[in-house]
Amino acid sequence: xxxxxxLSRAAVGLLLCASLSARxxxxxxxxxxxxxxxxxxxxxxxxxxxxxxxxxTPEWRFLGPDDARRVLVDGWHNPPDTSRPLGMLCPxxxxxxxxxxxxxxxxFNPDGHxxxxxxxxIDYDALLAEMQASTRTRNEARAxxxxxxxxxxxxxxxxxxxxxxxKLHWAMDLEEGTGSLHTLNYxxxxxxxxxxxxxxxxxxxxxxxxxxASMKDALALVEFSPGHRYEExxxxxxxxxxxxxxxxxxxxxxxxxGFFKLLLVGLLAAKKFVVIGVVAVAxxxxxxxxxxxxxx
Length: 296
Known about the structure:
By secondary structure, this protein is of the alpha+beta class. 30% of the residues lie in helices and 26% in strands. A hairpin with a 4-residue loop joins strand 2 (43-47) and strand 3 (52-56).
């Protein structure tokens, strides 16, 4: 091989390294600019049109709908049409744009009043098996969309329903197709009079202990406002959801308001979080849904 060819290849390599370095610097600058423009809130915060409230303690910070959407779309690269949250709750100790950062996406599902009659009757092992099978069958569709396969490994925390507080929480361990990345998907549902508050935290499985501890604390921060609480349900005027507790969990596998954050290897150096939607699986676990339909 001639010296000129070697020099030419070396020059290309140097240009590539310089380009990657410049891109990383530009990305870092964009993130700093994004974070500088965020408007953090603490104390009592109203959600939606006053349907619920958050008591944001010093251990947390809250972003309203617009700023939360900026983080999801511009910071985590979530598709714009799937990013319409009520807000985002983040640990005060870390930036959501840092590699170790994470946040709790908050949204509201207005499907109606969810009955908790089935809460003590659900076989969670059987439900998990159904969800695992459904996830595998959906991977063909994911591949056509250019996304890697996803496997539901199992419960990171088994579902638990607090019948007094009407709060449901569970966590799942999801594995990206290469087997090298495990993602923690921690879900909380707060049942209300006319719908359900959806809280979802997504992080690396290596953060499972910290996230689980924090989410237990976050459970106490959110409540429905008077007039919207679960026990204020009026069957003569309020709609009933077509599913119960089992349907909430099955449909919660990254369905409507789900956000799946994959820390792709190629973007780790740029400290980017990538959030992609996953095809809903509720239809594949229909036997866990209630037979009735919402009242009109």
